[in-house]
Amino acid sequence: MAPPGSTNTPKPTLRHAAKQRLSELSTTEQAEHARSLAPHLLADPAIAPADAILAYAAFAPELSLDPFITAAIDASKRIAIPSIDWARKSMTAHHISNLDTDLIPDRYDIRVPRAGCPVVEPAQIDVILLPGLAFDRAGNRLGRGAGFYDRYITALKDEGHNPTLIGVCYHAQIVDSVPTEPHDHRVDRVITELGPLDPV
């Protein structure tokens, strides 16, 4: 059963509970779940034909996309990773071709593309893989509160671009419901290490 969540539960309370659940995962479990996730993503009907995918470079204990990214690059997919402008509270997508050489640690040890990684224009992105602290089966997402993804997606949609949005998390991060606000974007589906979630 999904951990409790309610539209009446404040986001800070849900974030605290989600971080607690993440802290209980061992490094072995994190690595195993990352490996289990990759084939589910590669088989997704939006990812299989996609050219450009905006992924994320996880920082522990987030569910890592590294095995998926490596396989996607080997399959000639264009993988982009966000570069964060903390002052402007914005992000841009940059193409990487190697996890080991194209990413460097930034604030909070978040891995970001090194200088020189080319920008991927928003209109070229077919799929966005979104991390989150919690998701529900309706596709509502609880982020960390900074709003980078919501602003990025809003700008895309304002320009008429509608990439497929896929939430990525451990199955343990699925809750009954996530409270939403007008600026929040619902994902098209959620995929965990166990595979795609059945929608409500």
Descriptive account of the structure:
There is one protein chain. The chain has helices at 11-23, 27-42, 66-74, 99-102, 148-158; strands spanning 52-54, 78-85, 90-96, 103-105, 111-113, 127-130, 134-135, 141-142, 164-168, 189-192, 195-196. With 200 residues, the chain is an alpha/beta fold. It has one domain (11-196): NagB/RpiA/CoA transferase-like (Rossmann fold), CATH 3.40.50.10420. Strands 3-2-1-6-9-10-11 form a seven-stranded mixed beta sheet, with helices on both faces. Strand 7 and strand 8 form a beta hairpin. Helix 2 runs parallel beside helix 3. The longest helix is centred in the first third of the chain and has 16 residues, at 27-42. The chain is globular. Mean pLDDT is 92; it is low at 1-6.
Key descriptive features of the protein:
200 residues; alpha/beta; Rossmann fold; two-stranded antiparallel sheet; disordered N terminus
How would you state the average pLDDT, rounded? 92
Summed up, the domain count is 1
The biggest sheet, with number of strands, parallel, antiparallel or mixed sense and barrel status, is: 7 strands, mixed
Helix content, binned percent = 25-40%
Q: What name does the CATH topology carry?
A: Rossmann fold
**Spatial extent as radius of gyration:** 16 Å
**How many alpha or pi helices?**
5
Sum up the overall morphology in one term: globular
CATH superfamily label: NagB/RpiA/CoA transferase-like
